[in-house]
Structure formats: structure tokens, C-alpha cells
Design goal:
- The structure holds 2 protein chains of 2 kinds.
- Chain A is an alpha+beta fold.
- Chain A is 39% helix and 12% strand.
- In chain A, helix 2 crosses helix 20.
- The longest helix of chain A is centred in the last third of the chain and has 21 residues.
- Chain A is globular, with a radius of gyration of 22 Å.
- In chain A, 62% of the residues are buried.
- In chain B, a hairpin with a 3-residue loop joins strand 1 and strand 2.
- The longest helix of chain B has 17 residues.
- Chain B starts with 6 loop residues before the first helix and ends in an 8-residue tail after the last helix.
- The chains are: A alpha+beta, B alpha+beta.
């Protein structure tokens, strides 16, 4: 019925392995993915959640009930824990094949505790489940670690990279060289525990109670994807297919958020990659969209994973580099070190901006001259970050640390210390509110706000308007709350890929979940689960010290642009926030009220705090 | 009543806009570079405009044909004339319009996407064109 009912428990300190059985009401009330992870976190740290060092908290991997069903876009895994980067709730998801592989190993998730002084990796196969020495991985990059653990592709792998050992707090977790849990530094958490990799090889069939119904839904969803122009564009040009439309809408940040237009951007759009470096299209298991790019640079012996839209914007438009091949190269460097390309690119763009404005000088950079568009200096800086050398050591702690170090904290474009992703809230004010109130810091995928506000998705059953104007506050607080609730299920608990799900409607999601879990669900049930998960993560943030003043947008995102489609336009974040607090049932200091927690069914989970 | 009272008025306004774009230094090369034939089929009033970037007129970046044509189109865009007018004024969210079916695009997605870079310059050119025709009243 969508679950194996077992979770693998790993204690690195004692090097012991065991099985957990999660309570049935967790599955019913929190569905899967980060819903289960937040319950597990609270169970393990009922008393000391406020003060524990993130490294002493668990690192958790969870699947959703749809993994292994063959429904497109559902072979997704979430990593979660207390973020060593932001110090609040941390989560990041990726596609690929690990989730269905884990189900085929008989597990819904893995919970990892403690830490080991010796570097280890975890191997899961029919023959044994073992913690093994990983000394041979230490001096290797992410791709080499994958090669070392994959057994020629037989094993599905998760690895950290050398950046984590260099102290890069936004280190990612790399899955099979092509997929990344990039955000919130969970690669750093994993490496800090002494765990450098996980290799899993499934041996059993995932259990599904109603295969006929699932097969019908799977066929329906595949047909929708086949007909969808959005899905076709993703397949043809990857996630960077959104670059051109994003530029038209003012969605794409340029020159560290300070410009509204830049002619060079059209040189790094989706077609520019397809016409010059695309070798083939990659995909996650069972997904016909195939949005992944595999590129081959001139003169290169091998292909490599190509950059996503977020990377093209973070290093391209943000740093003013309009060179497709260079973007592939810098993407490859970040991937090999194991660094989130959004946080890396944004931190580099901020460093360049501060250098050009004289806030930092060649004395701080060790003689390196930084300039927008200067490809060589950016590459050198990225290597410094990955190796923890020179200014790179500071940049590896992110934009907030950089801005604070040089006395300009308001220059960091972060919410709750996480860099704002590549969608400008001056173009879409609802996204501004979604960033400000996101439970993991600035995030574009923890709700379906972006897809709804930009018009790519339409959910008639969610009682939202058919269309929203981007640069206004009208109707946005309610829309953001609903799209966060729905997104908590869709992207974090179910778990669907938010891109593959864009052409779908709410009933595709609800029907899939009903069929996979064997529990008849309606739209209200799903929204109720999403609200519960959002509030639980919100409470974790509150317990870890987040207050209303942290529900904010960074100053650069509230500074009007002089040019571009949204010149002169900034979100009324304070106005939207007041209405949002009322809709959400939050107290003036940002805490969900006791009534709100009780009505969401969270009284027991947060009994200590009520 | 819609923006255009007849197909003649549509051709006089939106058709001549397309013709002007065929020699515009910013928009023209972007459409020429697509190397495709795109047909715009409008309703209310019914009208058809074909943009041929494969066989440009002498001294132009592409040629523009009014009315039915035997020319094989790579991409066919279908929409109401009102949506088209609002679109060229930059008042229609393309993603939303395609998702909601207000605009339909038929043809290889690789060809359709090549048209996108040409659209943005039009947002400033079309209002100027309306003003030049003495139809600033149509600017929304």
C-alpha cells in the first residue's frame, strides 16, 4: 500500500544497524517524505530541539508512497535534518532512481544518527547491509566517488563531495552524478557525520495494493505529459527552457539582482545549449519528460551533466557571463566538489558586486581582481571555495557570512540565511511572500506558488483564481497559503517532481495518492495534510529561534529596478504578511497558535511546547 | 465588441505591425534567425497572417502574407484577435495563456521556442506602431 513499513536506522557512533517501524498515524497524517522526517526529528529530540548542534541531529532520507509506482515524476527522495547552513529545518529533494531502489530494498527511508571519526559508507544489498571503510573515497570528487561505489551502475549511489571536507556549509548530496540534493547544506551534515556515501541495490518488488487503478492513473498522467507544451519544452530544452519567458516576465535576476535587462541572457537560453553542446537527454526513472541535459564540450572525451536553469541564472545572468560552454564547465566544477550551484553562484555574484563597489579589495581576495563577466576570476574563486582556500573559505559559509564579515549584512540576498533562488519576487509578489515564509528559507519549490502565479499550473479544485497578476499583492496571501499546503504534499511528502507535475491538476495528485496508499482521499484531505506538515516545520523553525522579523525579504529584492519589465515595482511584503498571519493562525511573534496546532492535529507532536 | 471591428482593421493594424517588424533592426533579425514559417490564425474577427522567415522579401528579414495561404507552416498559433492585441502590448502572460488554452501553438516545440526571443522587443514596438497610426486609443 505504498509503504514498506520499515525504516533503516543507522548509528554511526556505535556502528549499529537496525529497523524502525513508524507509527501508522504518521503515515496517515503526514504521508511520506519530509512529513515523516519532521515527525522523526521531533521524536528523537523532544527536549533539546532548540539547542542541539545540527551535526548531532539526525540526517534522514525518506521516500513517498508513490516511489516505485512508475507514475512519472515520483521517483524522488528527500534528505532532511536540521540544516548546518541555516540552523533551522533543512530539506532538499532529488529525482533519479534512489527512491524506488530504496523501496526495492524494503525501506521507506533511512535515519542516520551519531558520527564516526573514520570515514564510512553504507552499502545496502540483498547479501548484507553494512557500514564499510571509505578511506578510498576521501581524496576523490563526487563523480569519482559515484564510480567507486556504483559497481558499474548496479548500485544507486548518494555521495558527498570534497567541498564538505573543506567546510563549505552549502555542500550538496550527489546522486548518480546527475541529480543533487543541493539546498540547505545536507551534504555537509552527511560528511560531518563521517558518512561519505550510500550505495543501494534493490532486490524486491515495491508493494502496491491496487495496481490496476495505479496503471490507469499512470496512463492518464503520461497522456497529459505527452500533450503538454510545457513538458515538451522541458524535454527539448531542459529546465532552462524557462529562460526566455522568464526574461519577458522579469523573473530572471540579473547582475546580483541590480539589473532588469541584459541582452546577453538570450545567448544562454535553452536553444543555445541544444544547438551547441547537447549530447543527449537524461531522465529520472519512469519519467517521459526527460528534462536532464547531457552535454559534451568541444574537444572533451566524455559527456557530463549539463546545467539546470537555476545554475544558468546563478552563474550566467547573475554574474553576467553569456557563454554556454563556460556555464557547463562551472556547473561541472560545482558538481564535482559537491556544492549547491544556487548558493555558490549567488555568493560569488555578491562577492563580485562588493569588489566592484570597493567594499572588498584585492587585499581581501589575495590579489584576485573580481569583475562581472570575468570568467577566469569566477572559476578561480569557485575552486577556492571548493578547496577552502583564501577568500573561498569565507565564501563557503555563504552570502550572509560574506556580507556580515564586511559590515554590509543587508546586501545578502537570503531569507533565513538561504540564498533566494532565481525567480525575482519583484515580478511575482506572491513568490516574495512565499520566500519570506518558506519553512527552509528562501525556496521556490516548497510550494506550487511559482507555478500558479506564473500561470504554468492551474488547480481548479483548490478554489484559487484562474489567473493572478504577478506584480500585485491582490489575493496573494490566501494563494500562497493554499499553494504552500498543496506543495507540501506534492513536492515534499507525495513526492512529485514539481516540473513534471506542472501540467497536472489536483485530482491527478489526489487520485494517485488514494490509489497508492489504499486510503480514499479528497482535495481537502490533501490540503489538511499539507497544512499539518507546513505548521510542523514552521514550529521547528520557531523552536530554533525564527520570529516574525525573520519572515522578510532581503533589501535588494525590495529595491526598485531602473529597467526591465518590472521597473519601479516592489512587493508590499508587510501588508501581505499581516493577512498571511491571520490566514495561517500565527501569533504576532510568528508562532503557530495553540489552537492552530490543535486543529491541525499537532497537539501531541508538540505537546512539550503547547 | 472586440478590439478590431473587421479583418480589414486587423490587417491594417496588426498586419502592418508585422510588416514593420520585418525591417525592424531588433525584432527582425530574431525572427529571421528562427528560419521558420509561422501562421497566426485569429478569431473575432477571423484573419490569418503568415510570417515566412525562410523566404524573406528583398531587403527585409522576413515576409508577411495576409489571408489564407498554401505555404506550409512549421508552427500554427491560434488565438482570438483580442488576445493577440493584448499579447503584443505585453498584457498577456504567455505561459498562462498557453496553459489555459487562450493561445494554442501547434508545431515542433523546438521551432516554437525559437520565436520567444523575438517577442520581447515587440512589447515596445507595438504601442509605438499604434500611436503612429493614430490609434493610441487601443493602448491598454
Amino acid at each position: 500500500m505504498g509503504y514498506t513499513g520499515k525504516v533503516l536506522s543507522v548509528d554511526l557512533s556505535s556502528r549499529t544497524l537496525s529497523h524502525l517501524s513508524l507509527p501508522e498515524d504518521w503515515y496517515a497524517g503526514f504521508l511520506g517524505g519530509t512529513g515523516l522526517a519532521v515527525c522523526q526529528l521531533l521524536k528523537e529530540h523532544p527536549a533539546d530541539l532548540a539547542e542541539i548542534d545540527p551535526i548531532d541531529g539526525p540526517l534522514m532520507f525518506f521516500t513517498g508512497p508513490l516511489a516505485g509506482t512508475g507514475i512519472p515524476g515520483t521517483d524522488r527522495l528527500v534528505a532532511a535534518g536540521i540544516s548546518p547552513y541555516t540552523s533551522i529545518w533543512g530539506e532538499s529533494s532529488c529525482g533519479g532512481r534512489f527512491a524506488s531502489t530504496l523501496k526495492c530494498c524494503g525501506f521507506d527511508g533511512i535515519v542516520i544518527r551519531g558520527r564516526s571519526a573514520e570515514s564510512l559508507y553504507l552499502e545496502i544489498s540483498k547479501d548484507s547491509i553494512s557500514l564499510l571503510p571509505a578511506g578510498h573515497l576521501v581524496d576523490r570528487d563526487c563523480y569519482e566517488r559515484v564510480d567507486a561505489l556504483s559497481g558499474g551502475g548496479k548500485f544507486s549511489t548518494l555521495v558527498t563531495g570534497p567541498a564538505a571536507s573543506s567546510g563549505v556549509l552549502y555542500s550538496s548530496i550527489c546522486h548518480d552524478k546527475a541529480h543533487f540534493c543541493g539546498r540547505t547544506g545536507l551534504g555537509f551534515l552527511m560528511a560531518s557525520k563521517g558518512l561519505l556515501g550510500i550505495a543501494a541495490r534493490g532486490w524486491m518488488e515495491p508493494v502496491q495494493k491496487v495496481p490496476e487503478r495505479l496503471a490507469e492513473i499512470r496512463a492518464r498522467i503520461r497522456a497529459k505529459l505527452s500533450d503538454s507544451l510545457l513538458a515538451q519544452a522541458l524535454g527539448e530544452f531542459g529546465t532552462n527552457s524557462s529562460m526566455d519567458i522568464g526574461l519577458m516576465l522579469g523573473d530572471v535576476p540579473i547582475r546580483n539582482w541590480r539589473m532588469g535587462e541584459w541582452a546577453g541572457a538570450s545567448n544562454i537560453n535553452g536553444p543555445a545549449f541544444s544547438e551547441s553542446v547537447l549530447a543527449s537527454r537524461g531522465t529520472c526513472r519512469s519519467c517521459p519528460v526527460a528534462c536532464k541535459r547531457v552535454v559534451k564540450l568541444p574537444g572533451a572525451e566524455h559527456t557530463q551533466p549539463g546545467p539546470e536553469y537555476e545554475t544558468c541564472a546563478a552563474f550566467g545572468t547573475m554574474c553576467l557571463v553569456d557563454d554556454v560552454q563556460w556555464l557547463c564547465t562551472v556547473n561541472d566544477i560545482c558538481n564535482r566538489y559537491g556544492m549547491d550551484t544556487i548558493s555558490t553562484g549567488c555568493t560569488v555574484a555578491l562577492a563580485i558586486d562588493l569588489f566592484e563597489r570597493g567594499v572588498i579589495t584585492a587585499e581581501h581576495t589575495g590579489g584576485l581582481t573580481l569583475a562581472f563577466g570575468d570568467k577566469d576570476s569566477i572559476i578561480r574563486l569557485v575552486h577556492q571555495i571548493g578547496r577552502g582556500e583564501g577568500l573561498g573559505r569565507l565564501l563557503g559559509r555563504g552570502s550572509c557570512a560574506l556580507a556580515e564579515e564586511y559590515g554590509v549584512p543587508d546586501e545578502a540576498v537570503c531569507v533565513k540565511r538561504l540564498e533566494v533562488p532565481m525567480h525575482d519576487p519583484r515580478a511575482f509578489h506572491g513568490m516574495g511572500l512565499a520566500y519570506a515564509t518558506s519553512v527552509r528559507g528562501a525556496c521556490h519549490v516548497s510550494g506550487v506558488t511559482l507555478a500558479v502565479e506564473q500561470g504554468g499550473s492551474y488547480y481548479p479544485g483548490l478554489n484559487l483564481r484562474e489567473l493572478y497578476e504577478g506584480p500585485t499583492a491582490e489575493g496573494k496571501p490566501e494563494m500562497v497559503a493554499v499553494t504552500q499546503d498543496f506543495g507540501m504534499v506534492l513536492g515534499s511528502a507525495a513526492i512529485f517532481c514539481e516540473l513534471a507535475a506542472m501540467p497536472l491538476d489536483e485530482m491527478d495528485i489526489v487520485d494517485s495518492l488514494s490509489a497508492a496508499t489504499g486510503r480514499k482521499m479528497g482535495v481537502e484531505d490533501v490540503l489538511s495534510i499539507g497544512r499539518r506538515i507546513w505548521l510542523a516545520k514552521r514550529m521547528v523553525g520557531y523552536i530554533r529561534g525564527m520570529r516574525r522579523q525573520d519572515d522578510r525579504l532581503p533589501v535588494p529584492c525590495l529595491t526598485p529596478l531602473d529597467d526591465g519589465p518590472n521597473a519601479g515595482n516592489v512587493p508590499d511584503i508587510d501588508g501581505m504578511l499581516s493577512e498571511f498571519y491571520s490566514i495561517r493562525g500565527l501569533m504576532p511573534d510568528g508562532r503557530p497558535s495553540d489552537d492552530t496546532l490543535a486543529s491541525a492535529g499537532l497537539k501531541e507532536l508538540f505537546a512539550r511546547y503547547i | 465588441m472586440g478590439v478590431f471591428s473587421s479583418d480589414k482593421e486587423l490587417y491594417d493594424i496588426m498586419g502592418t505591425f508585422m510588416q514593420g517588424a520585418s525591417s525592424h533592426p531588433e525584432m527582425g533579425p530574431k525572427i529571421r534567425d528562427s528560419r521558420i514559417v509561422v501562421r497566426f490564425e485569429y478569431s473575432d474577427p477571423e484573419a490569418t497572417i503568415t510570417v515566412d522567415a525562410k523566404n524573406p522579401d528583398e531587403g527585409k528579414y522576413f515576409r508577411v502574407l495576409f489571408g489564407p495561404s498554401d505555404l506550409k507552416a512549421d508552427v500554427v498559433m491560434t488565438m482570438s484577435a483580442d488576445i493577440a492585441h493584448r499579447f503584443w502590448l505585453g498584457k498577456v502572460n504567455l505561459t498562462a495563456a498557453l496553459t489555459r488554452g487562450q493561445m494554442k501553438a501547434v508545431g515542433p516545440i523546438s521551432q516554437i521556442m525559437k520565436l520567444l526571443p523575438a517577442i520581447k522587443p515587440a512589447y515596445s514596438i507595438y504601442p509605438e506602431h499604434l500611436k503612429a497610426l493614430g490609434r493610441a486609443d487601443l493602448i491598454l
